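Issue 218. Parser rejects a valid record. Input:
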Amino acid sequence: MTKKLPWQLLVLASVLSYSLSPALAAVSASQVKQAEALLSAGKATEARELLRGRVEFSDGPQTWFLYGKAAEHSGDLATARTAYLMVVAKDPKAERVKLDLARVMQRQGDTDNATRLFHEVRATNPPAQVVANIDRYLAMMNNRDQVGSAWRARATVGVGYDSNPGTQTSAREVTMFGLPFTLSDTARKRGAAFAFVKGEFDHIYRFNREFAWTSSATFSARKHFGLSDFDNFSGNFSTGPVWQPGDQTTVLLPFYASVNRIETSSKSFDDRWYSWETGVAPQIRYAAFDWLNLNLATTAGRRFYFKDGDKDATVASVSPSVDVKIPNAGTLSLGAALGRELARTAPNSNASFGVNAGWQYNITSNFVASLYGNYTQSHYDAPEIIYGNDRRRDDRTTVGADLIYTWDAIGSDILLSYAHTWNSSNLAIYSYDRDTVSVAIRKGF
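Output the parser choked on:
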């Protein structure tokens, strides 16, 4: 292990070892191009074998970097480390390569040298996205090495406007039992200003580098001005084991519980408390590279309704996603979701499929912007007799944007959010559109 040696000495050792070794055949320009083509085609092992035995000390930094990338992508971390060390020896200002070297050191378990190298690059004031990536790696290493308890809490308060808090239709007439009915103003789309509060708490207890136990709790409440029938409260709790067999893979198996409450004019308990749900939510996350994360989230549980037992359902979902960090262009997230609800009655049972995309960009170290969108299609198993013989089919689309400014003077985030949703249904009563805008302040503890 090399944990006790400054990484600069490792560079010197690498230079000396190649300086004292017999000269090898230098890599030709055509071989460099061939290796680049192989690496671009995903044939990292072939690229490594092409360069192995040919690259020598006199070759330039770019050739050694190519050799290091080919070795890293083929899983040969020892060779990748040596190659990156040679690049840094030849070009001490190659900050990007130092990050590659630090990442390889981390994967080898050499966290001391990796940490020193990450801090050295961070001190050069790189772009905000690079700083965010470095901080993520440092946090991951520190969290895995720190046995014991750690927690985080955040509180958010804000105000906003919702054009349709009840997701009600704008249509004036709907067909029920084959006859046209005119909806009253209270049954149609109405908007209102609101105030809200949200609390978040996360806790982790780490037993060792591989095993931990995490818990989280979130609650949110919204009060509408003038439309108190749509005031709501939701609470979510999860807890379960975490297994991290290495720095790249994280497996979670949490149990979860949630509850939802919607205000009504009734004083009945069942009228106010809407639904609750319990289940498990296994997840696996894989950091394939520093720029690519793969995720698979699943849920399986039971949902119960306080007032309408016919809606009680077994629920399940599968949601694969991928996060791609684009140099100097932020992070792109792409995902999909498959869902199934099997209720006591067929008209309340449905299957859904959706896709989603998001983009986040650090404009400055204190200013983050993000855009997101998702589309979900839902099909119900049987018609609702009150609305005719057609089974309900919904197409829901949401687009939104968030701006977050970290105000260092007060140690808080200022959040500005906007979202637009429109739901198209073959049953007019379920078609609606909705705009929500809000401003809030968030404080971490």
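Fixed in the parser; the record now loads. The two ends are 37 Å apart (CA to CA).
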